[in-house]
Amino acid sequence: MLDNMMINRFKSGLGGQSLPLSIRFWNGETLRFGERASVLLSLNSARAAASLSKPTLGKFARCYVEGEIDLEGDIHEILSLGEKLCAEGECLVQDKKGSQAWKWWRHTRARDRKNISYHYDVSNDFYALWLDQKRVYSCAYFRHPDDTLEAAQEAKLDHICKKLMLQSGESLLDIGCGWGGLVLWAAQHYGVHAVGITLSQNQHDYVREQVKARGLEGRVEVRLMDYRDVPPDMQFDKIASVGMFEHVGRGNLDGYFDKIFSLLKPGGLVMNHGITAAGLDSRGLGSGISEFIDDYVFPGGELVHAARVIESLARSGLECLDAENLRPHYARTLWQWVHRLEAHSSEARRLIGEQKYRIWRIYMAGSAHAFDRGWMALFQILAGKPLANGSLPYPFTRDHVYT
């Protein structure tokens, strides 16, 4: 009786929609919607049906990760179908006064180190399954629609180097250097002296191995260090931060750019490359998505609108020179990551287990869908530190970036 009540409650929650969906209940009953059932949703318990009787995208993700449901079918269709099943208009939400997301204690040094380790110190071999050969874990730059991921990531690294106008002999700081893609590329192709910092032990150890293997000792250095602890006497011609400032926290943005300003030589340039919110006063994604990401994927991650980023860096004395939205590039990047992960699903499960495999699969696919839908953006914001007389040597055009 209880099973039938739960099943009927779940059916009524779907509102009789015609969808390319089949639902298999825990008692063996299968319910088919529409003529083309390309997605199979298996409800493994009455609890799952109760949870999803009023579904949100966050609930779907949680139930999938916890094994309460199984999802079979093309991941693109699964995400599109999930959105249709959930309440419309709830994926972009505005900031609420007193939101816990902006509390200072979310971003102490110890907490940030723990959060970074949770996400990045999973397994270097796991990331190698689906990243490009340089292990660049950030938005690629597709100069042509049919570019391979490898080509697009190299294009991104070069895009950043050209925007920063790197010159041989200059010093470069990469805040949140990942597996070293940018510092290694900049040293090898632009002749700079690069310092990369990261809070991930796995990334730090990997970069050190790559520096040695490529004979770049003395030209590339990696440190296990919080950006707030970079010594003030270290001064750099250029600074890059790629896919890192999402971890900084809204309440710390001014301090973050103050630190960058203090480390940048007068006349120097900084590139801030990161995910931004689509809504001007957004506190993240709605439909339970932000809460799922905070609990399972990026603890402490926070997004702000690009306008807030420019406002904050301006308060620190930096001058914005260029802002480019790469949103469609990140959607394409993420879909490629998802397809590569799925192609290596057996090995991924062996390396990190079923639950973590599900976390990364649904998180990256959901993020790709969000970028496609315009719920998030990805901005490269270039800024400079003016000289004492207020001038800032930078070309009148962007020809140097595209030639």
From TrEMBL:
Keywords: Lipid metabolism, Methyltransferase, S-adenosyl-L-methionine, Transferase. InterPro entries: CFA/CMAS, CMAS, DUF7884, SAM-dependent_MTases_sf. Transmembrane segments: none annotated. Pfam families: CMAS, DUF7884. This is Cyclopropane-fatty-acyl-phospholipid synthase. Belongs to the CFA/CMAS family. It comes from the Bacteria. One of its GO terms (biological process) is lipid biosynthetic process. GO terms for molecular function: methyltransferase activity. Residues 18-80 form the DUF7884 domain.
